[in-house]
Amino acid sequence: MASGESKAPSELRQDLVCGDWVAIATARARRPDAFAGGDRPRFSQPLDSCPFETLHPDALVAYASDGKPARAESWWVQAIPNKYPAFGSGQCAVFYPRGPYQWTQGAGFHEVVITRDHTRSIAVMDNSEVRGILRVYRDRMVTMREDACIKYVSVFHNHGKTAGASVTHPHSQIIALPVVPPDVGRSIRGSETYFHQRRACVHCAIIDWEIKAGERIIYENDRCVVVAPFASKTAFETRIFPRRHSARFEEATDEEYDALADALRTALAKLARGLDDPDYNFFIHTAPVEQAGETDHYHWHMEIMPKTAVWAGFEIGTGIEISTIAPEDAATFLKGVS
């Protein structure tokens, strides 16, 4: 068989950063529109029982739609403490033995970022509204990383019941942890290894190649690129990269936040229109809270993971995920969605 030629029913692709393998099962391929939600039940909760309808008295930060500090009648986005936190006050950096194991207290922060409209998701907001959400992410991250306990600040958004949203009112969450999460750690180590081997940023290499190749580009503007990853873990996985190399999301420029708001809104709108508003998670991968210079090789980015498949025995038992549409076809489809 000639080099590069394949007649196998699937193609194994390796993630350039973390080294994970994924299977692109072309023999099981489905048409892009087959991933649409169709008649699935919609997750909804009544307005009158929603806990997110007013400016919370303990709001940590709140802005109006024009970006100015908000009052009760004018708020657009706010950050509040999570009522049921996964991490909170406690002793950090103290590890205790338990037989052959060790444990430490879950010291940190857990906050909720809420937008005012009860039903309007990011996909149908305007860029200035999304920019306000990003501003709250940044402000809270900058505050949290000043705490001596904190090693990493995780920002994520769950849309839909199968993505883990327990409240339908659009909201994101921020969790600050006393450890670096394993997935982030693998990404950091992969970036560091590539840098030591090539003296270059692995994500910059990915961005440069994807722009040159063109086949997995979904959207781009002056400062951000939206791509379907070469080794997509799930169908229609999407990543947003800033063109400028920078290790930390919270250190982006105002112009980059404007561009990111445009890229995020556009990517989610394409998913919503093209796949009939699928459930999804998005999150930010950024450098851990460390001394300046230690992770300058890293390149922050956002990842969007639509719920287009369910892990079964093979995925759980091997850690190899199967995507039933080639990223190139997913990108072509989403790029054409207006």
Quick structural gist:
The protein has 338 residues and is an alpha+beta fold. The chain contains 6 helices and 15 strands.
Plain-language structure description:
The protein has 2 domains: 47-177, HIT-like (HIT family, subunit A), CATH 3.30.428; 181-335, 2-Layer Sandwich (HIT family, subunit A), CATH 3.30.428. It is 25% helix and 22% strand. The chain has helices spanning 127-144, 182-198, 202-213, 254-274, 313-318, 327-335; strands at 11-14, 21-24, 61-64, 75-81, 96-98, 101-103, 109-115, 152-159, 171-177, 217-220, 224-227, 238-242, 280-285, 301-306, 321-323. The strands form 3 sheets. The protein has a 10-stranded antiparallel β-sheet with strand order 3-4-7-9-8-13-14-12-11-10, sandwiched between helices. Strand 5 (96-98) and strand 6 form a beta hairpin. Helix 1 (127-144) packs across helix 4. It is globular and about 60 Å long. The mean pLDDT is 92.
Report how far apart the termini are: 41 Å
Instruction: Tell me how many strands there are.
Output: 15
Proportion of residues in helical segments: 10-25%
Average pLDDT over all residues? 92
What is the makeup of the main sheet? Answer: 10 strands, antiparallel
Which regions contain 5 or more consecutive residues with pLDDT less than 50?
none
Q: What is the class of the largest domain in the CATH system?
A: Alpha Beta
Strand content: 15-25%
Q: Spell out the CATH superfamily of the largest domain.
A: HIT-like
